[in-house]
Design a protein that fits this description.
The protein is of the alpha+beta class and 209 residues long. It is built from 6 helices and 11 strands. The protein has helices at 2-20, 115-125, 130-136, 170-176, 182-189, 199-206; strands at 24-26, 36-42, 47-56, 61-66, 69-72, 78-83, 87-91, 94-102, 105-113, 151-161, 164-167.
Amino acid sequence: MKKTLLFICFNFIMYHIVAQSSVNHIDRTTVYDNFQNAVIYLNNGTMVKEKQANIFLKNCYLVYKKNNSVMQANMDNIVSVKFEDKEYLKIDSGLACVIDSISDKKLLCITKIDVETYKTQILNSRQITNLEINNQVNVTTTDVLEDSKLYPLINYYFFKVQDRIIKVHERNILKNIPKDNVRVFKTIIHSPDFSWSDTKYLKMILSLL
């Protein structure tokens, strides 16, 4: 009985971990391999064009090159950033990529370096002290120009509905979904192949909000 209960609990935990993550890796600390042209929209209604912009994957902040140095932008003033291929909106957790839209509602994704997984990889690769771990996982903007490692990534999904930012989680969605759509929502999440990291299903849920 205890083994069965432990197995159920383990699967429940793993289900919710997978709900927010998509296992992949990257060999740099920025979204783009090369710095890109970007249009930055500010909260005072103005916009700024930046020729060498990128997004730092440790905190999803905007960075740009200035005199061969990488600088971090003042995120307090930023509303959104448009690159040639993608649009990013600023939310509390950083810059979130717009994955899809339904009318004025948006599906957003923040992709970050998974520091905990990275720490585990280092531990598994060799004997290492806690002090060495802290030194090795302290990813800074200086690493943007010195990439030579393979970093695991984790995705966090959000819905933007009017002025609300809703982190993708069953509990959060139930607080915001109209009562008439709860039954359809539960049917979707109990589908055999449903995944919280599958944008096809997330878009279906977005349409119900």
